[in-house]
Specification:
The structure is a single chain. With 137 residues, this protein is α+β, with helices and mostly antiparallel strands. It folds into two domains: 30 residues; 106 residues, Sandwich (Immunoglobulin-like), CATH 2.60.40. The chain has one helix and nine strands. The strands form two sheets. Strands 4, 5, 7, 8 and 9 form a five-stranded antiparallel β-sheet that branches. The protein has a four-stranded antiparallel β-sheet with strand order 1-2-3-6, with no helix packed on it. Strand 7 and strand 8 form a beta hairpin. It is elongated and about 45 Å long. The termini are far apart.
Length: 137
């Protein structure tokens, strides 16, 4: 079966358009580096801002919270979206913990900003925390 030059051109244009749309949507929802460290532990993972249709456009993070000192203290990850307090996710004492959470603003159509840090729970002293990292859509 032979196709005319006009049909070949239409098929090629459609293929290029589809490829551009796929690349555009992948980059809009690309994973961010989600890593934090402080004395005694670190978080190694990824994060992304979900589309509006998924968990109200949540800030989604996942990865492993690692206690690399194992001196009887707990590590915890804190994440918050603008306008709300921190959500805190603990690892057991002297253990690593895989985390996979969605954090969102229930009053908004999508979450545009998030902040995160990692801390080590230190009794009788202020907790040892990393600097806050800011993430935006």
């Amino acid at each position: 079966m032979r196709f005319s030059g006009k049909i070949k051109k239409m098929v090629a244009t459609a293929a290029v358009t589809a490829a551009m749309l796929a690349v555009g949507s992948a980059s809009a929802n690309a994973a961010l580096n989600f890593s934090h460290s402080t004395t005694g532990g670190y978080m190694s993972g990824s994060a992304q801002f979900e589309p509006r249709s998924n968990h109200q456009g949540a800030f989604h993070f996942w990865g492993t919270l690692v206690d690399n000192v194992r001196e009887g203290q707990r590590m915890y990850q804190q994440v918050k979206v603008m306008g709300y307090g921190y959500n805190t996710y603990y690892a057991p004492k002297d253990a690593n913990q895989y985390l996979n959470w969605f954090v969102w603003d229930g009053a908004a159509l999508q979450t545009d900003y998030a902040r995160a840090r990692i801390c080590r729970d230190v009794p009788f002293w202020p907790d040892n925390c990393s600097a806050e990292k800011y993430y935006h859509r």
